[in-house]
Specification:
The complex is a heterodimer. Chain A is mostly helical. In chain A, helix 6 packs across helix 9 and helix 11 runs antiparallel to helix 14. Chain A is globular and about 85 Å long. By secondary structure, chain B is mainly alpha-helical. Chain B has a domain of 233 residues: MetI-like (MetI-like fold, Orthogonal Bundle). Classes of the chains: A mainly alpha, B mainly alpha. At the A-B interface, helix 1, helix 2, helix 7, helix 8 and helix 9 of A face helix 8, helix 9, helix 14 and helix 16 of B.
Amino acid sequence: MFAYITRRILYAIPILIGVNLITFLLFFVVNTPRDMAVTHLGDKYTTEEAIEQWIKSHGYDKPRFFDAEASGLKKITNTLIFTQTKNMFLLQFGTSDTGRDIGQDVKERMGPSLAVAIPALLFGLATNIFVALLLTFFRRSYLDLYGVSFCVALMSISSLFYIIIGQFLLGKIFRWVPISGYIGGWSAAKFVLLPVIVSVVAGVGSGARWYRTLLLEEVNKDYIRTARAKGLSSMQVLFKHALKNAMIPILTGVVVVIPTLFMGSLLLESFFSIPGLGSYTIDAIRSQDFAIVRSMVYLGAVLYIVGLILTDISYTLVDPRVRLQ
Amino acid sequence: MPFKLVFLWTDILFWLLMLMLVTVTVMPKPRHIKQAWTYVWQSKLAMATVVIVMFYLLMTMLDSIHFQRQVEGTYRSDVESVLDVFLAPLDQNVETSYSAPFASRSFVAEAVELPNDGVVYETTPLNYVQQFPEDEPDAKIWDILYKTVVGLMLGLSLSLVLCIAMAYFLRIPILKPSRPNTTQWRTMFITFVVIFTLFAVMYYLSRFYHILGTDKVGQDVFYQTLKSIRTGVLIGTLTTMVLLPFAMVLGTFAGYFRGWIDDVIQYIYTTLSSIPNVLLIVASVLVLEVVISKHPDIFNNIALRADMRLLALCIILGVTSWTSLCRLLRAETLKLREQDYVQASIALGTSNVKLIGRHIVPNLMHIVFITVALDFSSLVLAEAVLAYIGVGVDPTTFSWGNMINVARLELAREPVVWWSLTAAFVFMFTLVLAANLFADVVQKAFDPRARQLA
């Protein structure tokens, strides 16, 4: 187990280097630091010195791949690609275009992101499992048919509409909750309520349908028939046997997204003005702040890889048949 | 000639794709694939949804033939499509601002100067819509009803004639209900008549009214949402066209050759898929924007620039999303490679290329069909989200994403401007739902395990 995890973590390093290479190609080769400076300072009214100054202040003035003038190892280490990759690996994201420390911003904004993402995940999971159980219990009935059709219809609606309609109905017409905004502490609850509801409703279509397939796969297996033949009620079989086994793929599917919860949701956070990492990213995209976008891409990749490792570990915990080698 | 054809890149690719679709349809197919498609055509749901998707495809086709009009010896700079001509004069901004569906006066009060130097704020009569005398409040309703009936009659008779002619020449029995386990022609024809008539009514009414209202600059919303169809369909189809070669070549190579080729390909797709998809798309589009702004001389024409941006978005979406299909194809190829007939073929010395072409790829097609069908709807939905984030198609391009993005700000108005949002919602929902339901049937047809679970 320990050896396996070590190996997985070591295997993550070349992948992270690859991720860095891709972002480096996008942000420093296709789009040179000079372009960034020009975009940032404005096209026409900028002088040569201002551009030089901007590039220097961001530390982008080194050679990109190879420094011919330096000696020894410095030929490689004194380059943009090396320093940028090193900084990312040490989680030193540098400063944004507005001069703020990105690492500090990320730390501050994780809290609000989690305040929305965790309840959304938990309530979403509970709702999806509940609906899926209901559909499976009444399988091959009209309830199942219409339920699944309704799920497909829910899946076909753009997530933007859920947010817009949720804000419009609950926020504007009924005035139950504030339309958007955020304050820290426990009073955040009333601001978090609407995004959580929207996220649960938006996810129930695809989620419940997917879990229903998992449950049905279990229900069709031989051990369920045996249990029924032994005289257990269909209720008992569904909850005790089928659900337990279907929980393996459900839980491992959830584990993979747990680390990415830190990143928050781009849409929800920006619509509801929640100062999390999602809205941070959206703001950076709109103001073309490449340093932030690059940091977020890297952070997202790290968290995703952590999620994959956690998934493998959780398999061994919930399913004794799986052994890691 | 009074006009000159303009070939935009996306037009060419879309027609190429249609050509491929026709070729694939008429090409002889292996028996198991033929059987699966037979299963699809025997489903009423599939037949009904395929008609709806075809309607959207037809709109895209009409909107993908572009030309420039000649006026007084010179070609006009703006590019029009056949759909614009079909919907004219709605392609012009006929009004000045918002108006509600079927309204005959503007929605917002405007300043009107009185002859005696005073100014009053009142709603103004619309240019496009016929005005009715104010003492007859029912006159407009009767007029709408009358025109609805006329449109209904026209659409119904025309579509029935088309149906009967087609059934007669192809010898398809449509008068008696199709038996189960045969191709469900009747459902297809009924859906066709319904869709055609519905569109005929809307089209006929749109000659006299703004049936879905007008937007902020006075453009007809019905026109906008019909123009948006092209963007949605192109993103759904062209992206798959970009994604398929990547996924198929890399997937089969990794699974077939194994060894270091497999390692390299696996490394590439693991790296790409570990970056959150949205962020990768965003990063690519941001970089693209800088490239476009750096070369203003290449992209000088507005239509050309918008078109290049749409194409670039399709390419970016394709390049960032081939990984999941590639993974599936690799796993399936690994399995197929160990089959006896493949091993026998290897032993007989068949060349690798021939073997992949003859034994591997045909047996992967079911996965490809399922993925293409499933991806289409999610891509149409993704367009709207990308438009909101600010990395979607060009703001001058008509798209549901852009419509929603502009309209959502108007919900704060009192009274609410709801029609743009509703129009985009209805047209988008219909396409995505039809595509989703069709994809379900395709999945059941090609994956026997999915058929059991239904």
